[in-house]
Structure prediction request, 600 residues.
Amino acid sequence: MKDVVEIVDVTLRDGIQNEKTFLDLDTKKRMLAAIIDAGATRIEITSFVNPARVPQMADAEALCADLPREGLRHIGLVLNHRGFARALEAGLDEVNYAIVLSDTFSQRNQGMTSAEGVALWHRLAAETRGRVGTNVTLAAAFGCPFEGEVPVARMIEVLEQVMEAAPDELTLADTIGVATPRDIEDRVGAVRARFPDLPIRLHLHNTRNTGLANAWAGYCAGVRSFDASLGGVGGCPFAPRATGNLPTEDLVYMFERSGIATGYDLDRAIAGAKALEVALGHPVPGMLMKAGGFPAPAGI
Amino acid sequence: MKDVVEIVDVTLRDGIQNEKTFLDLDTKKRMLAAIIDAGATRIEITSFVNPARVPQMADAEALCADLPREGLRHIGLVLNHRGFARALEAGLDEVNYAIVLSDTFSQRNQGMTSAEGVALWHRLAAETRGRVGTNVTLAAAFGCPFEGEVPVARMIEVLEQVMEAAPDELTLADTIGVATPRDIEDRVGAVRARFPDLPIRLHLHNTRNTGLANAWAGYCAGVRSFDASLGGVGGCPFAPRATGNLPTEDLVYMFERSGIATGYDLDRAIAGAKALEVALGHPVPGMLMKAGGFPAPAGI
Prediction:
């Protein structure tokens, strides 16, 4: 029986949040259709943040008002109580709440310390009352652009506090793309050792060419859920030199050709990435969209 | 005690063989100095091939006539008997002889079938009489651009014949960059099961974003030697849409930050990649040269 992984699409959230080319509502809906057509069933559709700081997310409510829902789960990223309230109001299936593991980055990203972030999580967890699924993302879980190293002990310390109100799922985010496969083994291993029943998702950035290696190391360490974006677009507006997410189609190629089911269709994912590249008007990092699958379809 | 891997530099061979910008002898010597400065001790310095077909390699003898030698091992790639004789004459430390696992590609690459390639290897092995180190590369070991899938059984069948005259080392080459980590596990595992004492090197191309993932999978499967080029330049002239080797500096980052010694200095490797990019006059694929190491040096 084939092993299975889940690829969570973050194209319309992390993927475009830092893009200079503004994608209007119609374009987002068109891209969403391509994302679903490629095979996505769990989608981080937007973030509920200050539109003055992240203009691409200004239409969050409008986008959520008219979502295809059947067979899909939609996630909204939130950074504070106001965003959380907006996500609930918008009727999404899940909220993804981020806590940054370093105070300097946490202040820049969401105007609070990590400890304040944890305290707010406890309040949000109480307020959800089971109405939505919950994910807590530990951001900068492999390193901080301002403070440098983030020790494993720091990650576990914050996680212990988070788990006083356990979310449905934990995401470890390599926000600035510094992780190596050994880091993945170490940190996923540390989480699993402490909380063996907590589902883990990995949010990786391919800033230093280790993105797919880290995804593979995560798979080998037992992770079965991975964030990705069409064409590998993405990057955090508040982290210097942050670059793209894992390209969905590249991840699909790696897993499917390794005999692991993703539920995606590679050719449709490539078509989606190419459509996004046209919409953005500049080259995107994905490699399968340039190289093509293997073996190549007849006649290529 | 730290684990150790070897990174074999192939910048001046595979790295530039398909480059449109011609690198003259002085530029090659300057790049070689940068490669050595970065930490390379084993270097595939050139190939002894038909200069009409691969003009960048036309100065093979001139380059080899004036090589720094102390603490270094220089390798010449050869595809036929004439190239082999030239490599011996040039006084290199090792010859790397390629056998392509599919007949169509083998004919295009070196004008003979795979079986003829094996027969020639037996002749070359007899002629070396221990004068130089020998490596046999099985090219297109993970797939062929013309014939598609190359079964593991085919690889083992050819390897069995090669091993009638055992080389010092075997290289498995993903010439067109189609391998996934599972392929690496399967094929390295098959070789090790059949010939447990045969040292294995991996020659990988990052055409489909799986390059570093494959290197990591190779490491986990017991491989300790990997080909790479500064900036990740490279590609085979006779394989459609073949792209770059693993970028040396990206590989150094992945291994060193995973606690595995490479003998390279990351900053010097990045400096070499940047110098090569200037010499070639176009962007190269390496990512560390854009993102920088981590943690960043003070003041960045």
About this structure: Residues 3-291 of chain B form a domain with the TIM Barrel fold (CATH 3.20.20.70). The interface with chain A takes residues 143, 145, 148-149, 176-178, 180-183, 206-213, 215-217, 220, 241, 243, 247, 250, 253-255, 257-260, 286-288, 291-292, 294-296 of chain B (CB under 8 Å).
